[in-house]
Design a protein that fits this description.
This protein is mainly alpha-helical and 175 residues long. It is built from 8 helices and 3 strands. The chain has a 3-stranded mixed β-sheet. Helix 1 runs antiparallel to helix 2. The radius of gyration is 17 Å and the shape is elongated. The N and C termini lie far apart (50 Å).
């Protein structure tokens, strides 16, 4: 498995992800240009590279008969980046507690989602393994008495649950 090097803080790029997938044998190197072109044709809002690739219904060359789904790509990225994989289970999360530690606007802007809170540690789901500036910002202000642990989750799960969790928390507080 190719370890993606965390050279600098940055968002994942499509070329970076496609090159790593080819290096790991999940796609053929000859597919890179075709996939980039197909994703470019779709246009619209810039999508997370994993979501864009999964939308193309690409065969997973390491597991015959299987596709590179968002879940498969997130698990691959977790192994490649060294950030532990975490599947978000909304039923196992104390929504009012996790939404109380990071303001919604900040979580949305950073595209992060707190998923577990203890007296000493906060576990935060991310979809960008190389972006870490938010940890320093929150660590020196809001979360200064907590250890921050990052876990890698599906970008679509984070986006969906971010809205749902904070909306539910707001409704509960209004009661």
């Amino acid at each position: 498995m190719t370890k993606l090097p965390p050279q600098r803080e940055h968002k994942l790029t499509l070329p970076e992800v496609l090159e790593a997938l080819a290096s790991d044998g999940l796609i053929k190197p000859a597919q890179i240009n075709d996939l980039q072109a197909r994703i470019g044709i779709k246009g619209g809002e810039p999508r997370h590279p994993l979501l864009a690739i999964a939308e193309l219904d690409v065969d997973n060359l390491q597991v015959p008969g299987r596709k590179l789904t968002v879940d498969a790509l997130v698990q691959w990225l977790a192994k490649s980046s060294g950030v532990p994989y975490h599947r978000i289970d909304p039923l196992s999360i104390d929504v009012s507690r996790v939404t109380s530690v990071i303001p919604y606007a900040y979580a949305q802007r950073a595209r992060i989602l707190p998923v577990k809170v203890s007296p000493t540690e906060i576990t935060v789901a991310v979809c960008e393994p190389w972006e870490r500036s938010w940890m320093q910002e929150l660590g020196t202000s809001i979360l200064k008495n907590h250890k921050i642990t990052r876990v890698l989750s599906s970008p679509s799960d984070i986006d969906r649950d971010l809205i749902e969790f904070y909306a539910l928390s707001k409704q509960v507080k209004a009661i």
